[in-house]
Please model this.
Amino acid sequence: MGVNLQRDNGGMFMSRTLQKLFSNLVLSDGGERGGGCGLQATGYRISNFEFRISKWLPSAALALTLALTGAAQAQLTLTGTNYVQNFDSVASGLPSGWSVRTNATSSTRGTAVTFATTAAAWNSTTGSFRNSSSATGSTSADASTVQSANTNRAIAMRQTGSYGDPGAAFELEIGNTTGKNGFSLQIKHQMLDVQTRSTAWSVQHSTNGTSWTTAGTFSDPGAWGSTNATYNFGAALDNVSTPVYIRIVALSGSTSTGSRDTYGIDDFTLAWSGTPTPFVSATGSVSGLFAPLNTASEAGTFSVSGAYLTQNLTVKATLAP
Ligand SMILES: [Ca+2]
Ligand SMILES: [Ca+2]
Model:
């Protein structure tokens, strides 16, 4: 958000706007001389200053949103208080922000690969990411025709010795989390075709695509069906102005021998808290500056900082009588 520096009444000094977006707002310029934010008066004594929230600038906010959208159309834009993805429309393609990848590692996102939108049977051994019937409300004995007809879909993948083992990843890219905090994820891990090999699927998050934090790992249960899991991301994804990534990834090669499972995810539900309370703080003081009439006073220096600001911050100098 921006900062307005305003003089209380009349005069010629200090009427400017600094723009520094997002949190950790610090005024580091603004004085006619000296460092920091200098207040300079002519013929007046500056007795105090105060902070107050000034008008919001909708045009600035709008421009920011458009710029982010234009930069990467594949990103998901968060609205409201949660994001629920049931994947029931994947016959038309992956939802906004989602990609499926191979060759992902602990420090890379890997390479986006094709998602097969045509419904595939759970036991299809073709190495692929694909549109599958969800395990929720189904039974392991469902024929492929029943699976295809099921309106409850999931996104799934089958690893092979040359495809996605290791390095398969389901990834969601979010444009930003500005003004949002306290993220948590609920997801259904689905074991859709039980085979003898085992793959561990890690739930990870990142704010840069290269440094990833593991929130939890889903180990092969060895049994068909859906498993609910919840992951708390702490403050790691709070109020981030740049893209945020969440993925379910096979970081290590499968263990044991024989065939590989078909694994999928469904009902990906991301929740967050409301906008955190804005706060401002100040260090330094500009009180007690004094100069004869028509003579510049000493420059006073102070700094203002804040976080989670949703409106401009106005710094106001009040002149003593
Ligand atoms: Ca579904
Ligand atoms: Ca297995």
Remarks:
- The radius of gyration is 27 Å.
- Residues 82-273 form a domain with the Jelly Rolls fold (CATH 2.60.120.260).
- The chain has two helices and 21 strands.
- Helices lie at 58-71, 144-149.
